[in-house]
Amino acid sequence: MDRIEFDARPAMIAGTEEEASDLNRRNFLVTSLAVGFAVAASPVMAQAIHTSDEGLVAGEVQMPVPGGTIPAYRAYPAAGGPFPTILVVQEIFGVHEHIKDVCRRIAKLGYYAIAPELYARQGDVSKLQSVNEIFAQVVSKVSDEQVNGDLDAAVAYARGTGKADVSRLGINGFCWGGRVVWLYAAHNPAVKAGVSWYGLLNTPPWNPKGTSAISVAKRVKPPVLGLYAAKDGFIPASDIDAMRREIRGSKSEIVVYNDVEHGFNADYRPSYNPSAAQDGWRRMQEWFRKNGVA
User: Fold this and answer.
1) 232 in catalytic set
2) How far apart are CA 193 and CA 185, in angstroms?
3) Do the Cβ atoms of 122 and 29 come closer than 8 Å?
């Protein structure tokens, strides 16, 4: 990654289809998901994993939120259900191909996975050229309250499909979304378990007034598994130590991988570490299974 410098319920949309579409155009800057990978994630490595949607119902949907709808990607097994539900929270690059693929991987394990585009009101990051542009132009404008509300709406949407069992609710997030895992676990007591992949722990540099994961740790009731990298240029060891002190005595845990960098699960980027990614994926499955999500 480049160096960084610097209870809501979904509203029903009244009126005609044309009126609803016009409402979205006025209030939402992103009305459909990115195709392929975000430009700022280039170059995409040949090792990038592609998971088939065979045996799945998978694709983009429009999800009601206060003021309109936002796009989301959802995937679940084509037969059976309702399935335990996993919220998948995007990296800084939004819901691009990697996050869609993660949803398909999770669905192959027997879950209903849904990843809402959480920047939809603020802008399309898929076409921006750099991480710094993404943070300055879009992410700095996305409030924690908005994110929590849109994730609440994703739970409501999933419940309404009849294919998701939200009484078995988990949350799984990466990078920017890894921080969201800690915050949403503190926000929604219905979450059974969460997994945070290299999620920022201290005050976010893009929003000095934003909430730090460390500050809400005592309010996190569901068990959260934190998967972190010893050579992370964005999350110092001192922050990990501070978080470990805050969660001491709880059911949450932190695992740190030695000689590994930030973004070690991002198989399309040079930071990918197959050994750590595979071990983290195994731990994720075990975590959800033992904490009532599976």
Assistant:
1) yes
2) 8
3) yes
Contact call for residues 90 and 177 (beta carbons, < 8 A): yes
Tens of pLDDT, residue by residue over 233-287, are 999 999 999 999 999 999 999 999 999 999 999 999 999 999 999 999 999 999 9
CA 251 to chain centre: 21
Which residue is catalytic, options 152, 232, 239, 267?
232
Q: Specify the pairing of strand 164-174 against strand 83-89.
A: parallel
Catalytic residue among 124, 144, 150, 175: 175
Binning pLDDT at 50, 70 and 90, where does residue 134 land? Answer: very high
Is 187 catalytic? The answer is no
pLDDT band at 208 (very low <50, low <70, confident <90, very high): confident
CA–CA distance, 163 with 137 (Å, rounded to integer): 36
Q: Is 262 a catalytic residue?
A: yes
Cis before 77 (ω within 30): no
Contact 84, 168 (CB under 8 A): yes
From 150, 239, 262, 267, active-site residue: 262
Radius of gyration of the chain (CA): 18
